[in-house]
Design a protein that fits this description.
By secondary structure, the protein is an alpha/beta fold. It has one domain: Alpha-Beta Complex (Spore Coat Polysaccharide Biosynthesis Protein SpsA, Chain A), CATH 3.90.550.10. Helices cover about 25% and strands about 25% of the residues. The chain has a 7-stranded mixed beta sheet, with helices on both faces. Strands 2-3 form a two-stranded antiparallel ribbon. Helix 2 runs antiparallel to helix 4 and helix 4 crosses helix 5. It is globular. The protein starts with 6 loop residues before the first strand and ends in a 6-residue tail after the last helix.
């Protein structure tokens, strides 16, 4: 008899987001009356299969954080994204969760149907699944140390990774630990799983699921998340 699947979400939220050009960590910036982090927490709770959210924060940021609740816990984050993710994954493991939905705290516009689709795909087998979008624009490689075009790069078969990314907790914890939390290539959870020989499924993402990185991204997200007039 197999054990029932139990799903938690992990949000790494310990970073500063220096490219936002603000003294406030970007996950604590306000969007329509709530912090970006609050919007992202609500986004991963849109699917009722997500029982709990572990948010990895930097307690030294001195930023006000939302209150913990029955379905949200705050855990200590790390110096790198991977270290923060691993912290949340290990907390999920100790509390008996079988799978984790890892989502960027700076992607508050996650559509409910995208979340459900990646959970469906990511819990079928050990390969897991990630949200991603096929590259749409032409790609150019620059000359080293010069902002001029060196060559065209083919878009064929290229996808731009997003989050959420869904994996079994034990496998993901092992993969991150094996690759190392400071590894330069560990830019997302799929990279760690690929290092162990797994091939995560690709689930179609959404332009609404953009990652807030620059000030203009915040403007776009504010418009996307604006409440509909009553």
């Amino acid at each position: 008899m197999t054990n029932p699947q139990r799903i938690a979400a992990v949000l790494p939220a310990a970073g500063q987001g220096s490219r936002m050009q603000t003294t406030v960590a970007k996950q604590f910036l306000q969007i329509n009356g709530q912090t970006m982090l609050q919007h992202s927490i609500a986004a991963v709770l849109q699917d009722k299969r997500v029982e709990h959210v572990f948010v990895a924060i930097n307690t030294d940021n001195k930023q006000p954080i939302p209150s913990a609740s029955a379905d949200v816990s705050f855990v200590q984050g790390g110096q790198t994204r991977a270290e923060s993710v691993l912290s949340g994954v290990l907390h999920a493991m100790t509390q008996g969760f079988s799978h984790v939905v890892v989502h960027d705290a700076a992607r508050p516009g996650l559509p409910a149907d995208v979340l459900s689709a990646v959970i469906d795909a990511g819990t079928v087998d050990d390969n897991g699944a990630i949200v991603a979008m096929p590259v749409r624009d032409s790609l150019k490689r620059s000359e080293p140390d010069h902002q001029i075009v060196s060559t065209q790069v083919s878009r064929d078969g290229l996808w731009q990774a997003q989050t959420p990314q869904v994996f079994a907790v034990g496998l993901l914890a092992d993969a991150i630990s094996e690759m190392g939390i400071t590894h330069d290539s560990l830019t997302d959870e799929a990279a760690a799983m690929e290092c162990l020989g797994y091939h995560p499924k690709l689930v179609m993402g959404s332009l609404k699921n953009l990652k807030v990185t620059h000030p203009e991204d915040l403007e776009l997200m504010t418009a996307l998340l604006k409440p509909s007039p009553q």
